[in-house]
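> call design_seq(struct)
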């Protein structure tokens, strides 16, 4: 498909415009600074491009967020939203909101994939945890109630327990950009003899990408790309509702 630039710099003739804004400051897991963060303000650039290009169809993907922010975005995009959890079509639980003018989208049948389904039979030793890392991970994932003081106010900071190791008989938790680190949210699998992190290939499979799709850069960059990415099979499902034309 070819497009042209119209008067005033508007791009015309685009069939499909897809975009995902930086999500960290909308996420219920983040600081929720919403539009006060410069990265989140990129949303309004998308709206500008959308209005200038006037594509046949568009798709915006983002995380779950507070209702008041959803309503702001809805007003700008004049469409309602559909929430799809990636665990319907993959082995990863990843709730995302999709705003689109593609009509009549329905949810697919559940694939019933689990974390076990995407694991490699053999992995390099570099993904295994040593004893110190295992102990640190146990602490990070265990329940904590820590007294703190902020602005002369005393309170209890709590972190609820997380599975250690991760269960293999259900979809994984959402993968994040920090999968290669030793952090509270890092996925760890194994048994009493050894534990390991997920490999980049396994994270690719959780996003329903081909093996080694992100190869060619460091592991840390691969984890970042995959944590920031979309689940391909979900996007394919949404696009399957684009009306067919005589040219297709």
């Amino acid at each position: 498909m070819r497009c042209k630039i119209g008067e005033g710099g508007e791009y015309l003739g685009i069939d499909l415009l897809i975009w995902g804004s930086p999500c960290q400051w909308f996420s219920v897991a983040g600081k929720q600074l919403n539009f006060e963060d410069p990265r989140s303000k990129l949303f309004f650039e998308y709206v500008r491009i959308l209005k200038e290009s006037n594509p046949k169809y568009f798709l915006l993907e983002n995380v779950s967020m507070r209702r008041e922010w959803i309503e702001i975005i809805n007003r700008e995009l004049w469409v309602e939203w559909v929430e799809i959890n990636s665990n319907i079509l993959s082995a990863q639980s990843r709730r995302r909101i999709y705003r689109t003018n593609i009509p009549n989208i329905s949810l697919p049948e559940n694939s019933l994939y689990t974390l076990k389904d995407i694991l490699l039979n053999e992995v390099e030793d570099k993904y295994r945890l040593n004893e110190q890392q295992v102990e640190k991970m146990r602490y990070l994932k265990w329940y904590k109630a820590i007294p703190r003081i902020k602005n002369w106010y005393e309170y209890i900071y709590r972190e609820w327990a997380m599975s250690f190791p991760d269960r293999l008989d259900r979809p994984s938790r959402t993968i994040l950009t920090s999968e290669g680190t030793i952090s509270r949210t890092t996925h760890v699998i194994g048994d009493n003899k050894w534990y390991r992190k997920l490999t980049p290939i396994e994270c690719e499979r959780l996003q329903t990408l081909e093996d080694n799709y992100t190869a060619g850069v460091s592991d840390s960059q691969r984890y970042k790309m995959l944590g920031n990415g979309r689940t391909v099979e979900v996007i394919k499902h949404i696009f399957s509702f684009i009306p067919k034309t005589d040219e297709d």
